[in-house]
Amino acid sequence: MDKKTSSAPSIWRVNLTPAVIGLIPAAVGINYVAKAFAEGLKLPVWLGSLGTFLASMLAGPIPGAISGFINNVIYGLTLSPVSTVYALTSIGIGIAVGVLHAKGGFSSARKIFVSALIIALVSSVISTPLNVIFWGGQTGIAWGDSLFAVLVANHVPVFIASFGDEFVLDILDKVVVAYVACLIYKQIPKKMISYFKD
């Protein structure tokens, strides 16, 4: 085996250090509060993946995916039962953020935007079938559902209309969350970040 390859750090390696173990519930809490805040104010975004973004950026895709999964389960048990099925979406988001961050996808404003679009696409691909099954294709966000209604009225297939509904919302949500997460990440001292990498 090539020595250089074997010694390269893997983004899939998970060291359950005290820092990582503490990060996961903190990320879950951030997700929970942000999502409840957005729903309470009826914002046109969900914000419920902020903690997932931070966990994936700090510790890699697996802790991020775990944080998102746990949040959806808890949120589903306490505030919105159907939220639990979207744990699958949160897993996808956590993995996408972790991989993109490791590849330098959050190193500049332009790259953050492109990464947010990719994450929005991942989220939409996973969420659309769930929206069709549980909500007839809608998302529960008024302006996105207005687009869905227009598309369906113009004889666009429900699945495609649902994807359009989800994707336009995901673009706004993930762009906002990506920039906020990066802003927070840049304020964290490098020494503290290293605790999650070791």
Automatic annotation (TrEMBL):
Annotated Gene3D superfamilies: 1.10.1760.20
Keywords: Membrane, Transmembrane, Transmembrane helix
Transmembrane helix found in the keyword field: yes
The keyword Transmembrane is annotated on this UniProt entry: yes
Transmembrane segments: 12-33, 45-70, 82-100, 112-135, 141-160
Protein name per Swiss-Prot or TrEMBL: Conserved hypothetical membrane protein
